[in-house]
Design a protein that fits this description.
Layout: E1 2-7, E2 10-13, E3 18-26, E4 30-39, E5 46-51, E6 57-59, E7 67-72, E8 77-82, E9 91-100, E10 106-110, E11 114-119
Length: about 120
């Protein structure tokens, strides 16, 4: 049994910052890629940022230069530092991870989501 638990969402004014955290727990052999997605009302879920087990990162064009993804492998945790937040960043943010539950079995997991609301 593997769980991803997100924290750090909330209400922030435009131009402000928030830091999201996502901790994986349970029967984990190792963790491959981790990422953050978001879904705004009436829109499809989109990839915001991802990070490989080796630390290579990629970002959606809309957040480049404003968001930073990082991970602490010892804590099985991924972070999303969000700065210069814009109204358009308002969404439910979801953590995602590719997790090996054994040496040969890799599954994809989602967190429950955390609301980020940016106000003017």
């Amino acid at each position: 049994q593997v769980q991803l638990v997100e924290s750090g969402g909330g209400l922030v004014q435009a131009g402000g910052s928030l830091r999201l955290s996502c901790a994986a727990s349970g029967s984990i052999f190792s963790i491959d890629a981790m990422g953050w997605y978001r879904q705004a009302p009436g829109k499809q879920r989109e990839l915001v940022a991802s990070i490989t087990s080796g630390g290579s990162t990629s970002y959606a064009d809309s957040v480049k230069g404003r968001f930073t993804i990082s991970r602490d492998n010892a804590k099985n945790t991924v972070y999303l530092q969000m700065s210069s937040l814009e109204l358009e960043d308002t969404a439910v943010y979801y953590c995602n991870a590719e997790i090996f539950v054994s040496r040969w079995t890799r599954n994809n997991y989602w967190g429950q989501g955390t609301q980020v609301t940016v106000s003017s």
